[in-house]
Structure formats: C-alpha cells, structure tokens
Amino acid sequence: MKTFGFLMISTFLVLFATLLPYSSASTTRRFHFNVEWKKVTRLCHTKQLLTVNGQYPGPVVVVNEGDTVEIKVTNRIAHNTTIHWHGLRQYRSGWADGPAYITQCPIRSKQSYTYRFKVEDQRGTLLWHAHHSWQRASVYGAFIIYPRQPYPFSGSHIQSEIPIILGEWWNDDVDKVEKQMLKTGAGAKVSDAYTLNGLPGPLYPCSTKDTFTANVEAGKTYILRIINAALNNELFFAISNHTLTVVEVDAVYTKPVHTKAIMIAPGQTTTLLLRTNHLSDGEFLIAATPYVTSVFPFNNSTAVGFLRYNNKSKPVNHPNRRRLITSLSTRAVLPDMLDTKFATRFSDSIKSLGSAEYPCKVPTTIDKRVITTISLNLQNCPENQTCSGYDGKRFFASMNNVSFIRPPISILESYYKKQSKRVFTLDFPEKPPTRFDFTGVDPVSENMNTEFGTKLFEVDFGARLEIVFQGTSFLNVENHPLHVHGHNFFVVGRGFGNFDAEKDPEKYNLVDPPERNTIAVPTGGWAAIRINADNPGVWFIHCHLEQHTSWGLAMGFIVKDGPLPSQTLLRPPRDLPKC
Hints:
single chain, 579 residues, mainly beta, six-stranded mixed β-sheet, 8% helix, metal-binding, secreted, repeat, copper, signal
C-alpha cells in the first residue's frame, strides 16, 4: 500500500513539514486503532487512562480528499467502545458513523470492527473521538484531510503545520465521575485541568515539565489546526502578541478573519494562519481558558503553552515559569471568561468563502422547518431515593421537552431491517409542545418535567430542512454546542431572546452563511440552520457538552433513500457489531 507522509503521528511539535499541501492522488488508507489502557501521570496523579495505541492524545489520521478509509478498531478493554469520525459526512455509510446505539452496537471486549468510508468533497481539519459514555475524555485525535487543489489562502508559502488539540484532564476516573452524576442526579465533578495536546502547562501543580511548546522561525507563515476535544467546556484560545487569521472552520473554507483570539466549542475545529512577525528570539504564551455562560460549577483555570521563536532561544528556567506567568498576564492575552460580546462578535464574523471553486450551497427555500427548544430540566426524585440536584431533585435535559433515551440496539440497524417496534418512534414534536417566554421564565421557580423516549422525525431524500434551536432559561441560560451527524449545515441566523418565525427569517444570511457541523447556540437565544438532507440514514443531533447528552439533550432524524441506487444507504458490513 502506498503511504502518504506520516499517516499516524503521535508527537505534537511543528508537524507535516515534509507533507505536500495538496494532492490529486487518492487511494485506500488503512489504519489500526487499539483501544487500551495506558498509565499516565498529570498534576502529580498517576492513573490508568483510556487511549488509542497508548497515545494521549491519540494518533493523527492524515488522508487525501477522495481517499477511501479503513480503520480497524480493536477493543482491548473490558468495557464496550465505539469511535466517531466527527464531521465526516459518511455519505451512504452511516454504519461507520460511530455513536453507540444510534448507528451501531458497541464493539465488545476483545472484538474488532473496521470503519469503512470514503472522504468525498471534504478537506481540512476534523477530529475523531470515542462515542460511548464519557470515553472521549481521553480517546480523541485529529483527522486531517489534504485537498485536491492548492489552498485558497492568500499570502505566504506555508512553512509547516501545528495541530493543537484542546482537552480536559480529571485526576479521578472519568467513568466513575459519570456514574456518580447519573446515580445522584446532581451535576458532574468538574475537570482538574485544561490541556494543550494533552499537556496542562506550568499554571497547574507538578506540570512545568508537561508544557506544550511549538518551535517556529521568524518571518514565516504556519497553519494552526485548533480542535476543541474538551468534554464539557467551550474555550477561548489565543497567542500573546500575535494576530490569528481564520481561514477554515469545521473543514470548510471561510473568508479570512483577523482576530486576537477565538471562541471554539467542543467538537468544533478552527484552522488559523499564524505569521511569525517578531524579529527577535523569545517565547510567547499560548493559552486556553473557558467561555462561561452557566451558573453550574466549572473549572476556571487556564492551560498555557509556549510559542518559541527559532528554537535557539533558551527556555525560561523551568522553576520560575509559573511565577512569571501570572493570572494577570493570561488575562491580557485572553478575553474575560464571561465575555459573551466577544464570543458573539467572533461567531458573527465567520462567513463561507463562497468562491466559484468553493460555492456556498445554502438552501434559499425550505421544505420543512423544525423548531426545538433546548432545555435543562429538574425531575422529581423517585420515591425511596435521595437526589442531589437542585432542591432535592434530579437534573435532566431535553429537546422539545423530550429527554432522549438510547435504545438497547442500533437505531440504524432496526430502521434498515424495518424492525422499529420498541426501538424508536417517528413522533418527535416539530415545534415546542407548549409556547411560553422561552428565555424569560424564572430559572428556578418554573420548570417542566420532561418526557422520555427515543423519538425521531423523518424527511425525504433531498429535502431542504431548517432547524431552529431555541434556548430556554430553565435552571439558567447557557450556550449549547449542537452537533449534527451525517451532514454539514449553514448557520443562516442567530439571535438573543425568542425566535420570531415571522420576522427573524427576513434577516437570514442566505448569501455566505458559515457552513459547519457544530453550532454554538447563543446563551439565552436561538440559532437557525439549513441542511440539504441528501445523505440517507439515521443521524444523531446532540449537545456536545457530554454532561447534557447524558441527561438527554439529543434527538435524531432519518433521511429516506432517494430514487436512484446512488442515493440509497449501503448494505451493513459483515463485521458490524452485535448487541
């Protein structure tokens, strides 16, 4: 098999200097993932950490646009697992999408499953991660697609690339953190640190040696591939004394945006150009800290790394680094954690490139509109139980007041075999069951007990679908990152308060809206997306704050087969796992 540069990469300094920036060749790329435990130490704590191939973060997967990809995943742990290729469209290959009990049964202990799919009409930075319980806390990595054509970026030659994956670290066993949350009905224990490529940096205990450093040369242009793989936090990211230029989000080219910082939600990717315009050697802070819109407890710390010029300058003496990097210096680099105005300006600045070669194919008319609330809920504590949520109740979450329940078998398989009875129903409400002042209700004195079910809705192949995500103020207003599987979508509108179906569509951007796979719905507001529903299968929509997904903030939809053989779901693979 012909290889292409480094196909799986475990080091996270400046990478890919030897790779071609584009390639017209396509072939079959084969990889092998072993899901296994690895003893890892961070913050003075050593524990068994779930990894792929013993790497944390996991290996970088590099392919070309047009490639066929086969990734054999072998489960070497006692628990079930799956892997999701986040943002890959999986055209007609929903069997390879990965969410447990949605498109497949999990891979059992000591068994393997090969994910097979073709990378069609996609290029750029994506990610892969586990999609079973909270395993993606440490099981994640970059998925990079090199384009057939040269980059459309104007400017200098690209010197090389630097992938930076933002994550979270728990000293505790994350599986136990999740189980305790579900047992008590309370919120989950927050993480102990944020990480840059798995390294927390010198602001945390015992972490000076665990600091990410990127070595660069002055007067060059670098590509930064920023990925938010954090479990429960949206994040701000910046590099001190440098301007960043956004050229791509979620593997879709954008009009260039110059900014001092970015806001990036879990599941989102942002590709940046970094011009190293400082003439002298030295180090500059790379920093990430949470964007906070919730009243729930959160980790209010900051991960720090360094951009080091020329690789000739001596690093600051390690014992002194923590004293030199004060909270004041990081605040000068990053927006304030509560800076919704910055987050809004940044999100509004992102526009599709919309060129002749990369047109913006937003639907200008629609066949169906679904309006769904996204809510946190309080549920009365069951008899003879003690619950630790607010007011002695349990926390749940819902869409249109339905808290999603994963069935015991795969929805896609039951749909394909026409055996949906007792697995799912096609009665997801396409508008809120009760109209009220969604973002104006008192957060704690008003509440709706949620219903529970595995409810989906269905559309014809080729339907032009609009979904409006409407936030609510139950418990608190919050920014929710919503991820749609199997399709990209266009963010045609966003706003604060309640969506007005008569007035707000008049202000939609139907010229160059950003094309994404994950949308950060504004805190106390709404977002409208449009989808060309041209991928047959069953597709998951869920909050990418894992705590909220566990509470039920999810739904699904089905795209029927089209009339042509090329518009139908492929047959299930022979090695598809069994429940």
